[in-house]
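Retro notes (design track)

What went well: tokenization of the new backbones is finally stable.
What didn't: we kept losing track of which sequence belonged to which structure.
Fix going forward: every design gets posted as structure first, then sequence, in one message. First example under the new rule, 628 residues:
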């Protein structure tokens, strides 16, 4: 069967406008091409989840820029051959394509479930390695499939290969004429697999909003809030944004320039993996918004990362040498190469992040919000500080000094440094760190800087005749006033990082130009995304389930309590531009009961209750304090 016929047949079986298609193999992305060109699907929102090993077929497709050709968008970020999911949002959210790259069975096993199933049809591409097909693969496909879901094979798969796949699909219920019944073996096997998965994800719950038709309030006004508003607007949701400032992006998202680059670790742990996928999603968001005509100051000029002392140099070397990074993520460079890339003299070898660079966080935030307004009913209340949030019979109500807003079907707390201000969120484990970013006028030698520098602090190329350098890092600061001492410290960080370089002598901070904000930082440096944990309920259960092997089993299999229809998005730290937009996209999908573009491992990594549950899962004592 041709790709177009397979896709259309899957769509025709749906009674709703939302369709999710799974695909094994790439098939030159013919499925995506059909979706972007066919008028028959214009009334549908289609998500395609493409699973492909990282092999020569994928590399050829990337090198030939097939994705960019099909999408017809020069602003489309190229695929990067790293394990995990890379989401591309096209046609204002009408078409979403998730590329799952790596070991296919492992990727399928790690897909989180909001509902029992979501795949409406499977396409097996002709270029897939048929040796990958076995019982386990088909059962994992069946686990996330509806009871009517069928497998459609490429017309190039024939003979014994076709027969083998059809037989495997029939065993797992993916190749049968009728909907599976409750007493079918395939139905029962799938139910068992889903039950196992639900138990696995129970400690870090994935909770959709209780109402299908949403009226969602977001408390906040920075990059996290605006990104979430856009992701919800792409899903047609009504959104009300409440910002305590006189304009968007006046707090931590208010710097003139912010760097975008991934946080990598030598062992490429889950945090490192999340940051790579989030970083790529942020770059795609940025390029897409700019291509739509939104005014955003940015330059993806790359980032050069070097050490500043013996310890940090060893750390940088360990990061780049301990893992085989894709060259588009991170590349090892010599001191000579660093100097050539940066256009200023640098004496240390280090890491180059070629896709990274800088962006105006204010512009990025405003563009995301403006695009959200284009797509859906999205409103903004400025100078509106929400003091309390209360759940009532008809939904959530928000109270400011002057009035009560609501009811809302769901609320997201995304107000940066104030995420712990409410009774329901006071125990969230994030700490505020004051950061002062200094501004230096561009001068002759300094003006040559052509990439973002990261060492003991960071420095950006000139924009509007100013460079940004910093930032200070002061825990639980008592004020947000300009600090002369921190201004000098920011300069000393750059001087210490690039000793005896003449271009450093051009840095002039005597004008006392700077900006101060507060970044909320978690202990493990991962953002918070998900339903707000109900700490009172957790503590009540803890009284009878603690410090024993049985208690560990209890917490491993019990859905952790959360506040109904209340979510949090925060703790983005100093790299919110890189980590925030994907967390927002995942949260929007969760609220709307859609499949998420992140793995089970990342759900656990980002869960707002992770600090407590990690202890409980290890049988350790639990201590709860509102002092982070």
């Amino acid at each position: 069967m041709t790709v177009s016929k397979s896709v259309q047949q899957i769509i025709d079986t749906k009674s709703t406008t939302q369709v999710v298609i799974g695909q094994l193999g790439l098939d030159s992305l013919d499925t995506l091409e059909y979706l972007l060109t066919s008028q028959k699907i214009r009334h549908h929102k289609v998500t395609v989840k493409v699973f492909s090993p990282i092999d020569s077929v994928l590399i050829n497709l990337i090198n030939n820029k097939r994705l960019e050709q099909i999408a017809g968008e020069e602003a489309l970020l190229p695929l990067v051959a790293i394990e995990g999911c890379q989401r591309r949002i096209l046609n204002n959210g009408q078409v979403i394509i998730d590329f799952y790259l790596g070991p296919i069975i492992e990727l399928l096993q790690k897909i989180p479930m909001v509902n029992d199933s979501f795949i409406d049809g499977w396409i097996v591409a002709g270029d897939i390695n048929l040796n990958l097909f076995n019982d386990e693969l088909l059962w994992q496909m069946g686990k996330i499939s509806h009871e009517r879901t069928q497998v459609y094979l490429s017309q190039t798969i024939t003979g014994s290969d076709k027969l083998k796949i059809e037989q495997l699909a029939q065993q797992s219920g993916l190749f049968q004429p009728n909907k599976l019944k409750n007493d079918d073996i395939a139905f029962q096997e799938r139910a068992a697999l889903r039950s196992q998965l639900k138990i696995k994800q129970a400690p870090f719950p994935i909770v959709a909003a209780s109402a299908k038709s949403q009226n969602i309030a977001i408390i906040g006004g920075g990059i996290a809030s605006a990104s979430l508003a856009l992701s919800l607007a792409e899903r047609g949701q009504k959104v009300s944004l409440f910002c305590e400032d006189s304009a968007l992006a006046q707090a931590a998202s208010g710097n003139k320039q912010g760097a975008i680059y991934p946080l990598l670790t030598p062992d490429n742990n889950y945090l490192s993996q999340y940051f790579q996928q989030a970083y790529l999603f942020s770059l795609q968001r940025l390029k897409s918004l700019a291509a739509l005509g939104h005014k955003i100051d940015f330059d993806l000029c790359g980032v050069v990362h070097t050490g500043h002392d013996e310890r940090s140099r060893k750390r940088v070397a360990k990061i780049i040498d301990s893992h085989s990074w894709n060259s588009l993520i991170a590349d090892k460079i010599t001191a000579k190469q660093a100097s050539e890339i940066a256009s200023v003299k640098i004496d240390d070898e280090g890491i180059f992040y070629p896709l990274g660079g800088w962006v105006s966080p204010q512009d990025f935030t405003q563009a995301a919000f403006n695009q959200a307004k284009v797509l859906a009913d999205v409103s903004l209340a400025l100078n509106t500080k929400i003091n309390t949030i209360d759940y009532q019979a008809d939904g959530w109500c928000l109270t400011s000094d002057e009035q009560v807003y609501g009811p809302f079907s769901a609320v997201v707390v995304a107000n940066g440094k104030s995420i712990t201000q409410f009774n329901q969120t006071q125990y969230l484990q994030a700490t505020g760190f004051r950061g002062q970013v200094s501004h230096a006028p561009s001068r002759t030698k300094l003006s040559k800087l052509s990439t973002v520098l990261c060492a003991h602090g960071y420095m950006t190329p000139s924009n509007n005749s100013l460079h940004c350098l910093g930032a200070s890092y002061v825990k639980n600061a008592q004020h947000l006033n300009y600090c002369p001492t921190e201004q000098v410290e920011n300069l000393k960080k750059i001087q210490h990082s690039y000793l005896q370089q003449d271009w450093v002598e051009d840095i002039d901070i005597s004008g006392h130009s700077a900006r101060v904000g507060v970044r909320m930082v978690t202990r493990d440096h991962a953002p918070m995304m998900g339903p707000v944990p109900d700490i009172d309920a957790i503590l009540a259960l803890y009284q009878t389930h603690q410090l024993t092997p049985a208690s560990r089993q209890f917490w491993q299999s019990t859905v952790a309590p959360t506040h109904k229809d209340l979510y949090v998005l925060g703790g983005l730290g100093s790299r919110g531009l890189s980590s925030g937009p994907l967390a927002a996209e995942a949260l929007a999908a969760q609220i709307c009961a859609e499949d998420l573009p992140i793995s089970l491992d990342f759900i656990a990594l980002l869960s707002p209750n992770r600090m407590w549950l990690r202890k409980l899962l290890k049988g350790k004592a639990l201590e709860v304090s509102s002092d982070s």
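Added context from the reviewer: Residues 270-291 form the longest helix (22 residues).
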